[in-house]
Amino acid sequence: MFDRVHARARAKAGRVATAAGAAVLTGGLFTDFLTGPGIAAAAATAGIGLATNIKLWKAPSTARATAFCVYASPHAGNALLLVGERLVPGGSNGWLLAQVTAIAVWTGATWYIRPGRLARQLVDEAVLQEIADATKEAEEKAAEVVVARPVDPHESDAARWWRTEFAGEDGIAPGTVLLDYDRISDLCVAVVLASAQRGTPVPDISKSRLSAHLDVPEELIEIGPVPGRGAGVRLLVLGPKPEPTEAEKAAEGDEAVWKEISSTAMSGVELIEANTYEIRKELT
Question: Which of these, 111, 117, 115, 128, lies nearest to 18 by C-alpha position?
Fold first, then answer.
């Protein structure tokens, strides 16, 4: 609200100054008395305007000088026309017509272009460009910091499938690599993931997006820590966990069923429930 009121006040002041300048130039055609005061008034107006226009002073160095010149251009033009009126020989209708035309062009251009507003627009554009350049530079530096792991020419089909489908820039699990892949049963797969950048945790993986991509119910997807490892490694279990047989229930219960999982860095996974579900062929 304040900016709009301030902008309207600046516009009104600019219109008044333009009209006053045109009046001084017109009067200067007939008398030498207005030449000195008119030049002094133009210089004072430009100086006061520049001194009080904080936006121009805070402009980026690449645009500050240009903005100052644009802002002061109508004042300088007014002063030059006043000087020209004194230098042009009198008594000629042709010279008088040329002077009147110059005054009309100065008035129309100043009124239409509004150099003060144009100068502020140049500053705004320079600030936006500076922000864009700084953002781009920061992104480039951040990209240089990330050390991407080279693609292993001997990587498994499962690891390659994970890298191409999930670990890309716009994938579900960007910045991850597949360390281990184990089929627990016909319907259950366990995947051990790691962060692609050493020393950083595995990025959050959206279960809902993973569920939609694999067409697997969310309740059959579990993402958790790998026992004995840090946050740079995560365990992903897809599909229903196998149920223990009656003999295993009577003997060792669930521990026997998960004995194989424990031997492949997947220990500590607790069996909560079991369902029947056909997993996508990519994981088979």
Answer: 111
In the numeric block, which tokens belong to residue 263? 């031997």
Sign of the C-alpha dihedral computed for residues 183, 262, 181 and 177 taken in this order: positive
User: In this structure, how many other beta carbons lie within 10 angstroms of the beta carbon of residue 17?
Assistant: 20
- What residue type is assigned to position 159 of the chain? A
> Which pLDDT score, from 0 to 100, does residue 249 have?
57
How many angstroms separate the CA atoms of 259 and 256, rounded?
5
Chain centre to alpha carbon of residue 228: 39
Rg for the chain (alpha carbons), in Å? Answer: 38
Q: Cα–Cα distance between 176 and 210 in angstroms, integer?
A: 14
pLDDT at 205: 84
| pLDDT for the residue numbered 253 | 47
Q: State the average pLDDT for the chain.
A: 75
The closest of 101, 36, 112 to 74, measured between CA atoms, is 112
Strand segments, DSSP code E, in the chain are 176-183, 189-195, 221-225, 233-238
User: What gap in Å lies between CA 203 and CA 196, rounded to an integer?
Assistant: 10
**Taking the chain, what is the end-to-end CA distance rounded to the nearest angstrom?**
63
Q: Under a CB-based contact definition with an 8 Å cutoff, are residues 195 and 209 in contact?
A: no
What's the average model confidence in pLDDT over 244-255?
56
Beta bridge partners of 233: 194
**Sign of the four-CA dihedral 180, 267, 171, 284:** positive
The pTM is what? Answer: 0.45
